[in-house]
Specification:
Length: 108
């Protein structure tokens, strides 16, 4: 068996399901030294769920790019920033909005 780096391949896909629109946003990419996998699902019944899920994923990506920290702290910062930005945006548009967010960081 050869010694060397493990080749990692990954893929992501989202399916609309039975709803009128897909409110999912996802992330599957290598950012810095981490492989990052995440899914955010806009909360049905709330306005702008698709925007909330995109904000959550965007804040996760940007936090990992900006900070050099251990995974636990990066995720905590990202979730807090996502929450802050979603609340701010909901005040701007005058509507309740929300999303779930599940994320995993794997160190190479």
């Amino acid at each position: 068996m050869k010694k060397g780096k493990l080749k990692v391949e990954f893929f992501a896909i989202s399916e609309k399901g039975v709803r009128e629109k897909n409110e999912d946003a996802y992330l599957a990419e290598k950012i810095g030294k981490y492989y990052v996998f995440a899914v955010a699902d806009g909360m049905g019944g709330h306005a702008y769920g698709e925007i909330a899920s995109k904000i959550a994923i965007m804040e996760l990506k940007e936090t990992i790019r900006r900070f050099d920290d251990e995974p636990r702290n990066l995720l905590k910062k990202a979730f807090e920033k996502a929450n802050t930005e979603i609340l701010a945006y909901s005040k701007i548009v005058g509507a309740r909005m929300g999303t779930t967010l599940v994320a995993c960081l794997l160190d190479e």
